[in-house]
């Protein structure tokens, strides 16, 4: 794999979390968020800020990656809805959030970054966390087909 452009101090350039799947141009991780099991990120490996910084074929590649992760999340986690977002206000490195949402999650129907409206039962969260190995396998399957 060729060396990608990195920016010193950027936490997404220097990932320290386990990667579920990695290609030449992007990586997929499962976010360690106890309240949102199944929360994933697709992270562009080179340090760029915006989709418009990518060549047209790379924009298509990244979009396809997001759709594949969404498909794996839907298949395994069975959410009511999937939120897909690219913000980058805190970490200005191109990445997409893929977040399974449920009517009983802490923030539903608001974004996960809003004020919590409730607390999801721990038994429900534990059951969702138990699906994470299957989700990792499904993500790998979606990219290795």
Automatic annotation (TrEMBL):
Q: Which Gene3D superfamilies does the UniProt record give?
A: HIT-like (3.30.428.10)
Annotated coiled-coil segments of the chain: none
What is the name of the protein in this document? HIT domain-containing protein
Positions occupied by motif Histidine triad motif:
93-97
| PROSITE patterns, sorted | HIT_2
| Residue ranges of domain HIT in the record | 8-108
From what organism does this protein derive? Massilia varians
